[in-house]
Amino acid sequence: NNPDIAPATPITSPTGATETILENKVPDDEFPNTADTQTSFISLLETLVDGQILPMLHTRDGTRAALHVLWASPVRLRKTLVKGLKTCISSIARDEHGHLFLIGLLDAVDDIVLLDKFVIKEILADLELFCIHPEARKVLLYALSPRDSRHLSPQLQQSLFQPGDGNPYTRKPLGVRAMELRSPSIHLLPQLLRLVSTRLTELFAGDLTSDGGRLALEDRGRIVLLCEVLLRSAAHHLNPDTVLRDYRRSVEALKPNSVSSNTALNLSSVELEQMTTLRHNALEQVVQQLLVPKFSPFGDTATPTESQSKQNRDELRVMRHRKARLRVEQALANQNKPAFAPFESGEPMDILDHDPDESQEKEENDVDDEFPELETDSSEPVMSFIERPEGQLLLRKLLQDGRAHKDFTLARMIVEHVSASNLIAWTRCNRSCFVLVNMYEVGDPQVCHSLRSILAPCLDELSVSPLPGAKVLIRLLQSGSEL
Fold this sequence. Notes:
The protein is mainly α.
C-alpha cells in the first residue's frame, strides 16, 4: 500500500528499472535526510535487499545498482544482504560482473566478523577455484591489496567503487580493512601460503605433467596472484603503520572516532612467527621447484608483442583473460559433468532415445573455435620459469621489494640453493641476466660477494655479450661495490 515502494515490487532481473529507481532515490552526492523520505527509502531498500540482489549481479548496470543499494543500506540491512548471499559466493565470484559486487562488500562492510562468517569462509572452502578462475581471482587480489591500480584500473575504481566512499555507514579506513584481511585470524593469507607450498606448479606456475598445470601455463594472471601472496605476507607488509599509509580511500576525511589505534592492529609475536614460517616455506618451494632445476636457455625470448603498441598489448591482455576464463570454465564443467544422463522409467536416457553421435557433434560445436582444445603432448619444450616474462616479473618484484625494506631472504635463498652452473647459465639469457642484476641490487654484502665469486669465470663472456641485461650485470660486477 506504500506508493513509494510500489515500483519496486515487480523488480526481479530488469536491472535498468532498478538502477533508475536508485538514481532517483539516491543521488551520488547525498542521502535522504528528512524523516518521511528516510522511512520510505528504507522501505525500498528492504524490498531490494530481500531477494532482489542476486538477480541483479549478471550485468554491469545491475552490479552498479546493487552497489548503490549496499552503500545506502544501514548496518542492519547490510547484515541481511550479506546473509542472503550464503552458499552463492563462489558462483557470484565466477560471474563476469558479480565478482565486482563481492569486492564492493569487502570494501564497504565494516563488520569483519560478518564478512568472515558468510563470505571469507566460503572463499576458503573453495580457495583453489578462486586461485584459478580469472574473475574470482580478482576478489583475492583485492583482499591482498585493496584498490591497487595494478589489479583494478583507476577508471573502474572511479566509476564503481569511489562513488560509495562518502556513504555514512562505512567508517573503517581502507588501511584497517587491509590489515584485517591479512590477519592470520582470518586464515586467508595463511591458506594461500600453504597452497603455494603444496600446489605451486599445478595452481600457479604451471607445468606439462597435468591438465591443471597446462592451464596454469596459459594463464599469466596466476603469477600475479602468487606475487601478491608472497609480497603481502612479508613482515614489513604486516606492519599497521605501513599499511595505513599505503591504503586510503578517495575520501579519507574520516570521522575522528573511525581510526583505530595502530597498536590494536599489531600482530602478536606468535602470529608474526607463523606468517614468517609460512612465507619462508613458500619462497623455498619457489626456489626449489622453479629455479633449482637445470637451466637451458630456450632461445630468443623476444616476442612480437614487445614491439607492439600499448593498444595492441591491451587487446592481447584482454584476449588472454578471456581465453583463461573459457579454459577454466570448460575444465570445471568437465569435472562436474555427471557420469550418466538423467534417468527415465528406470533406464538411462541414452539407452532409450539418445543419439551419441548427435551429442558428440553438439559438444564439438560448443568448443570455441578461437581457443581450441589443449594439446596433450608433454614432450614439447617449455620455457624455463625465469625466461618467461611473468617469471622474471615475479622475481623482480620480490627482489625490489626486498631491496626497499632490507629483506634479503629471497636473494640469499637463491644463492644458497641454486647451483653455480645454473647461475652462470643465467648470464646467457637476457631476462635471467636482469634477475641477477636485481639480486645484486638488493644490497646485501653476502649476496653481492657470492655473485662476484660465482660469476668471475664468465666475466670475459659477459663483456662481449650483446644482451642488455649482460651489459648492466658486468658493470655492477666490475664496480665491486654493494648498492
